Amino acid sequence: MDIIKTKIALSQEFIDQVKEEIEPHWGELGWVTYKRTYARWIPELDRTENWDETVKRVVEGNINLDPRLKSGHISDDDYEALVDEAKNLFKLIYGLSATPSGRNLWISGTEYQDRNGDALNNCWFIAIRPQKYGESHIVPSYLDKEQVAVSMPYSFMFDQLMKGGGVGFSVVPSNIKQIPAVDFKTDLVVLIGKESKSYQAAIDEGAVDRDEWMANNDLDNSRFYKLPDTREGWVIGNANMIDAHFESTNPEKLNQVVLDITDIRAQGEKIKGFGGTASGPVPLIEMFRDINEVLNNKVGQRLTSVDCTDMGNMIGKTVVAGNVRRSAELALGGAEDDDFITMKQDQEKLYHHRWASNNSVAVDSMFNDYEPVADSIRHNGEPGIVNLELSKNYGRIIDVYQPDADPNVEGTNPCGEISLSNGEPCNLFEVFPQVAQEQGWELEDAFTLGTRFTKRVTFSSYDWEVSRNAIAENRRIGVSMSGIQDWILSNFGHRVVTGFEDSVDKETGTKIKKPIYDPEIVSRVSDMYQSVVDADKDYSDTLDCNTSIKHTTVKPSGTVAKLAGVSEGMHFHYAGYLIQRIRFQDSDPLLPALKACGYKIEPDVYTKHTMCVEFPVKAANADGKYFASAGNVSIAEQFATQAFLQTYWSDNAVSCTVTFQPEEGDQIAPLMRQYRHTTKSTSLLPYSGADFKQAPKEPIDKKTYLQKLSEIHGDVAEEFAKENDNHDKKDIELVDQSDCAGGACPIR
């Protein structure tokens, strides 16, 4: 018999019991990273959350997305099963055997989740071509919802970036050629009233006095929009300006756009929903001016991939001005588009806005001209490679060619671990297998819980029609592992690549070194993959929805991996022993506790009002015979390890930033060519060691590590609670943190 039950909440009695039984597996930087990144402010208690409170919020926010609860009709047995699942999830996450994405740690279970379901997803993808807005929360008033507009993908990008998500976008030739030639040159006028606290700063940036302008001009021949003090207002203001350049969206042929920014809150004022403080209207004025200039310069011509990327970068630059947001963009261009590949060589534009995206090129397995790409990587660390053909026709490589297995894939998220269709997000959860085993979990059970967690996220309330359609169709999830190197060494005694054998590329006749994988690791990883697929099938049947088109991935991790102190994603530890430096605002309440515990703290040499704290870190298995770090593992083994995970674990993709030494540069093109039928996305960076002052990571020897460790005493969490009576400051600005190893994705 059905009963009406709509909410699951974990009891304090249960939570207190778990706290007695389970000790969280904090890494050396774990608790500090958590406290400054994911602990939300609790107004009624005048402090930020403790870890158990964060996990309770996150688990309850997720479990209550189950559509059976939303409908209000669920059987007693099913309700109790969900309660038990919530308890197991709490234990799993509280012990740091696994975590959802950083976005879920920050947003899940908040009122903001209820208002903006998009905020549960880390990253998105959008194709840069004219599209309709459809039944979305943002539709400019001058457009019919079914009318295609050049502004739409930029509006989508702007909106998601301001909600804290990263955005990958495609400027491949097939998209760019769909954009019509620019019809009109537009006179842009930005107005501001004297009542605005930002009046003088805006005037200095090029805005004009509203009352004076209105007294001497009329709006009859202008497209006018008064921006409300909302995220949507910023988006629609930008859309107005973009669409005014095209006859299809400016049939009146108005050649002036007037935007009134008087109501936008001033720099430093609080942002209630997402958190943090406002950047004020000045960055917005600069963005309007810069994008308008790009379009005005192309009147009578078609936009190029570089123009379209510039516009996206200008949006990203504006979003970065908000202090809790980290704009993450990946621009995907054509593999033979030389202007796109070399666009970052323009130093002036690089420093002005082109830094705002990582750039990659789309290839297929027939592509063979890797030398120019490799040469650019050696000099600039870009572009990366994204093989869309593999993503469309393969899950795991071992499962062989499956025509149109994922037919609508057009791009990827900024870190490259999830292949995505237009408007689709990545949806992530990661298990730390070594920690999970140490805490008594069967790995299949941990992966099952992660599968069900991500599946529920697909039932969130999404703002954009293009996203709702893609999510309902694909139900894509991305269950990941982190600490992979730690787990393999601890459980199997050696790395997964046990050697290389001479072989020949069957298509080219080129001699290659084929990797040899440990068959026991191959078998274990395949079993874990199957547990995710089985769990998805079971839950999809229960919920009467599509099974997920793909299930598994390896995300780069970063901030989240620091919580448990494990190696990041598939990456090798940066060094066996190192100094990890983290930057804090000089007003951060964690600093006195860190100082009291003996951590070295000094002013940051690059940024005012910022302090740099040193944490000595030892990698798992650092003294083991088979331990390898990013500083000494070969480029060939890194390529082979990524290929192993793409073959036997990930049916999405595997995010990996391959590090290489200068003398390995000539191996890049041959290795890309060797793994062209295996690897869906690849990026590379030269290994930098610690060749600049206060480097984020500095390799050290064991003796130095032990010396620095001996200077540290006490427990930072306990010292912090004692000094602050567990009452700390609200909305501390976040400095120098990223959710991904390469700094690509946003922390929250």
Summarize the structure.
This protein is of the alpha/beta class and 748 residues long.
Question: What would you say this structure looks like, in words?
Answer:
Helix 1 (12-21) packs parallel to helix 5, helix 8 runs antiparallel to helix 12 and helix 13 packs antiparallel against helix 14. A hairpin with a 6-residue loop joins strand 21 (497-504) and strand 22 (511-517). The chain is globular. The relative contact order is 0.12. With 748 residues, the chain is of the alpha/beta class. The strands form nine sheets. It has a seven-stranded mixed beta sheet. It has 29 helices and 28 strands.
Biggest sheet features: 7 strands, mixed
N-to-C terminal Cα separation, in Å? 41 Å
Q: Helical content, roughly? A: 25-40%
Shape: globular
Side-by-side strand order of the widest sheet: 6-9-14-15-16-27-26
Strand content: 15-25%
The strand count comes to 28
What structural class is derived from the secondary structure elements?
alpha/beta
Mean pLDDT: 92
- Return residue spans where pLDDT drops below 50 for at least 5 consecutive residues: 730-748
Q: How many separate helices?
A: 29
Kindly provide the radius of gyration, computed on alpha-carbon positions and rounded to a whole number of angstroms. 26 Å
Structural key phrases:
disordered C terminus; alpha/beta; four-stranded parallel beta sheet; 748 residues
Helix/strand layout:
Elements lengths: L1 E2 L8 H10 L8 H8 L3 E2 L4 E2 L2 H13 L3 H5 L2 E2 H19 L3 E3 L1 H6 L3 H5 L7 E5 L3 E2 L15 E2 L2 H11 L3 E5 L2 H4 L10 E6 L6 H7 L2 E2 H7 L6 E4 L4 H13 L12 E5 L21 H15 L8 H16 L8 E6 L3 H4 L5 H6 L4 E7 L6 H11 L3 E4 H6 L15 E4 L6 E3 L6 E4 L1 H6 L4 H15 L7 H10 L3 E4 L2 H9 L4 E8 L6 E7 L1 H25 L15 H6 L12 E9 L4 H7 L4 E3 L6 E9 L16 H14 L8 E4 L7 H7 L6 E6 L10 E3 L2 H9 L5 H9 L24
Parallel strand pairs: 6-9, 9-14, 10-11, 10-13, 12-13, 14-15, 15-16, 19-20, 26-27
Antiparallel strand pairs: 1-4, 2-3, 5-19, 7-8, 16-27, 17-18, 21-22, 23-25, 23-28, 24-25
Helix pairs in contact: 1-5, 3-5, 8-12, 8-14, 12-13, 13-14, 17-27, 20-23, 25-29
